[in-house]
Amino acid sequence: MTSQEYKTNGKKGLFDKQFTIERLTAIGNPLEKISNVIDFEVFRNTLESKLLNTEKKSNAGAKPYDVVLMFKILILQRYYGLGDTQIEYICNIATSFPIKYEYCDDEIENVLLKIGINCYKKLYVDNKKDKGTNEERIVFYNGQIIDSGALTEQYLNVFENRNAKMLFVVPDINNTLLGKNILNKIRDNSNIKLFIPNGKNRLEKIEQIKNAICDFEPTIAFMHFLPNDVVGFVSFSPFKNFLKFFIVHNDHTFWLGKNCADYFIEFRNFGVSLTFERRKIPIEKILKIPYYPIISGNKFQGFPFDRKNKIVGVSGANLYKYYADKDLTYFKIIKELLEENPRFVFCLCGWGNIKPITEFIKLNGLQNRFFYLGKRNDFYELIGNCDILFESFPVKGGLTVLMATQQKIPAIGISTYNNPSGALEDLLEIENYKQPKNYEEFKIESNKLINDNNYRVDLAEKLNENKYNKTDFEIALNQLINGIYEIIKPKNMLKLKLIDDAYLEEYLNKPEATMSNLLYRKWYIIGNALPVFEKIKIIFRILMIGKIDSIKNITKILLKKVS
């Protein structure tokens, strides 16, 4: 077979020096790295035999491009967008499992900063120029919107009341599916422009969001990211000429955003302390605004039993929060309370793998005393119709407690410092109350609440005296927008007592019954980033993973054969 002649690369021009191999190598030439692993020449004979016209009568016409070169280009085109996908995936792992004891990753954020700066060197926003008006222009980014969930509606209400012009950004139409009421509210307000990019990939969406922000010319920005929000981070990181406030919703997990904002809005002392001590964000950049729960307004659906003359306790959360204790000791204490108090009835709401719960109820003959109600849309109203809220355990959540205290329903739980759940008195910043520290104290306190109505009323009043209410939230946020930070500067910080290895152990030692739930969650996280076979391999490794203290190590383990 005669040697095929291909098009030459032409002569070097005046500026070709900046594109030399040495320069590409210095910044990390991906093609060079691939070539070090794969000998592309082994494909030459196959490519030439399949792609070239070997029956040409003459050499007339333009010479073809080198088939091996084109093959390399196709590979680069296929995997060009994989970098941001891998970063997003890695961040998902760090969010789902507490493997990063710093709760952030400067190395990943620096990579994203370079992407943002290099891609968008020219920015058109200049809020310093005289527009002839003092008009307030707010860009409000939400990684996802959920009706009566997260913090979107609380902030949106304040912005609307200020009559501010607003650009409301959501990075993907799929991230609006659970926020139809929010969308309707936005569309009914002529001051708000809704922007959802329609790009085919992350880079296109980032470009569209950046252009929308430039055109809008904001005076201030509020960023409500998802923990792994690569699109949000890269879209906002290059902007330096308006203030950017990062709304911290998941204060107890890893998140992207440390190097993207001017200020960070925490909602409790634990988050302030974690951001200062672990994330190493300067205290002068941390603000604190306690939020309040949004009332769903759903009609109460009732109980599956006769409520008359009964003391009803309720608890609710993602079921993994209870399964972190594979012996289900918490529910065993509930069983003892049911046996000792004939009038007491317990309701559990939640989502996830229900098998351990239904088996526990059946095995202990509690079908008429312990009711699993599933995921109730009227959960707020359900709490208001119960007598006592029981926090989830060993992993706790703050929102359900606020739903109870707002309606003057007493709450009971167990304090823990193995994980970020902490103690109720720290969350609500109330004095003269100490939450039970162990199962024995929990049972004693629960019995008091079940049998003494006055005790229930007194505790409900005490827990209700906290800063987590609409009035205090709106005053604080308006002060922030007006540039008055004094009242929202953190006054107190907790001395963190996190036992990192124990917290990680809770996630790594799930009982077998939760494996299918975890499998579904991880499959959902991976999405369409990888082929099915690779997803299966990665999920298997996630479920079998051991103690890991850095994203680098977990990446090597999870993506060893994928990369």
Features of the shown structure:
24 helices, 5-stranded parallel beta sheet, Rossmann fold, 7-stranded parallel beta sheet, 4 domains, alpha/beta, 563 residues
Please describe what this structure looks like.
This protein is an alpha/beta fold. The chain folds into four domains: about 15-80, no CATH class; about 105-290 and about 470-490, Rossmann fold; about 310-470, 3-Layer(aba) Sandwich (Rossmann fold); about 500-560, no CATH class. The protein contains 24 helices and twelve strands. The chain has helices at about 20-25, 30-35, 45-50, 65-80, 80-95, 105-120, 150-160, 180-185, 200-215, 230-235, 270-275, 320-325, 330-340, 355-365, 380-385, 400-405, 425-430, 440-450, 455-465, 470-480, 500-510, 515-525, 530-545, 550-560; strands at about 135-140, 165-170, 190-195, 220-225, 245, 265, 285-290, 310-320, 345-350, 370-375, 390, 410. Helix 7 (about 150-160) links the parallel strand 1 and strand 2 (about 165-170). Helix 6 (about 105-120) crosses helix 10 and helix 9 (about 200-215) crosses helix 10 (about 230-235). The longest helix is centred in the first third of the chain and has 15 residues, at about 80-95. It is globular, with a radius of gyration of 28 Å.
